[in-house]
Amino acid sequence: MSTRTATELYEEMKCMTVEERIRFFSLSLAEVHRELQESIAQIESMQHALAESELNHRQLVETAQDAVITIDLSGQVINWNHAAERMFGWRAEESIGSDLSDMIIPQEFREQHKRGLMRFQASQPSTILNRTIEIMAMHRVKGQFPIELSIWPHQQSGKQLFSAFIRDITDRKQREHLAWLHANFDTLTGLPNRRLLVNRLEQAITLAISGQKNVALLFIDLDRFKPVNDTYGHSVGDELLRLVGFRLQSCLHEEDTLARLGGDEFVALLPDLNSDDMSLQPAIDSMTAALSQSFLINDIVISISGSIGVAVFPRDAQDADSLLNCADKAMYTAKKTV
Questions:
Q1: pLDDT in tens, 83-142
Q2: Can you say whether the dihedral through the CA atoms of 128, 129, 133, 137 is positive or negative?
Q3: DSSP secondary structure letter of residue 276
Q4: Where does the record place a coiled coil (predicted)?
Q5: pLDDT-derived band of residue 57, with 50, 70 and 90 as boundaries?
Q6: At what angle do helices 234-250 and 281-292 cross, to 10 degrees?
Q7: pLDDT in tens, 246-272
């Protein structure tokens, strides 16, 4: 039925008898009642669906493996799920209504947290909302640990809230650290390997250029090491390499780097040197003396020595790889005189 205007209805009713008018109003009221009942049923269905959705949401939050925490603009906790209880050591009844920064934010980040809330109130851009960051959090008893944090700002009943989704990444960070150690350090001696040496050498060269300084490499190759392996076995040879690394490292300063390239080859990186080559001589003499002293391994007295080649930036080479090659060649030249 097409919709009629009030004027059209009035004109139509003027032509009706009393009985027709009564019947018209009865049908109209019945139609209105039917439509009203349908609307009420739709509203009730929507309310039921909303309640069911909210229940599902609460159950999802409570059973989530990640911590879900909601705070208001003042920083007070509104919601604290079971995973947050396990992760931070605070029960929900202790947490709700408390200031979040006093519970899980390390002291050094609390001022930053408060400034972030103030920036949001002032409609200033945020550096952490709607993105995932890695940061340190604080357990009630165990202290600080690394987390992955995502913060979602939203409105609820006219109030501004912030929901944080938090994942403990301690295990992942430990795996990453172990992978980094494996990639950058020699497993036998614990010294930096070639990769880390080149990285530090490149950094030292960059600093040397800006500070008009020199960088030196001392390439050390052990003499008479192969007979040790052949005579006493690799276990004795490995222990000798560990002791050599310890002795050589004791000859250097804290800012220097001693690396093992593999086999019986070691390299010492001496950064931030003056142009006088004589500043290298104490380190060379100390290393030579350290290697000339006998080693005692499993009641076996072992005597070796070392050949040392020297290369200096910028005199001998202009980049890390070339400088390392120059030191290697200088070592072989020194070895011919042994």
A1: 999 999 999 999 999 999 999 999 999 998 888 888 888 878 877 888 899 999 999 999
A2: positive
A3: -
A4: 29-56
A5: very low
A6: 150
A7: 999 999 999 999 999 999 999 999 998
User: C-alpha distances in angstroms, 44 versus 49, 58, 119?
Assistant: 9, 21, 41
Alpha-carbon gap, residue 230 to 298, rounded angstroms: 16
Contact 136, 106 (CB under 8 A): yes
Q: How far apart, in whole angstroms, are the C-alpha atoms of residue 189 and residue 74?
A: 53
Residue 114 vs residues 20, 73, 136, 167, 195: alpha-carbon distances, Å: 73, 10, 16, 22, 42
Strand order across the beta sheet in which 265-273 lies: 257-262, 265-273, 214-223, 305-313
Share above pLDDT 70 across residues of the chain, in percent, rounded to a whole number: 85
Mean pLDDT throughout 179-193? Answer: 96
Looking only at the bridges linking them, the beta strands covering 295-297 and 143-156 are unpaired
Taking the C-alpha atoms of residue 241 and residue 171, their distance in angstroms, rounded to an integer, is: 33
Vertex 66, ends 61 and 71: CA angle to 5°?
65
- DSSP result, 224-259: S-HHHHHHH-HHHHHHHHHHHHHHHHHTS-TT-EEE
Beta carbons within 8 Å of 155's beta carbon, 6+ residues apart = 161
Closest CA to 290 of 243, 330, 254, 236: 243
Strand 67-72 to strand 159-168: parallel, antiparallel, or no bridges (unpaired)? antiparallel
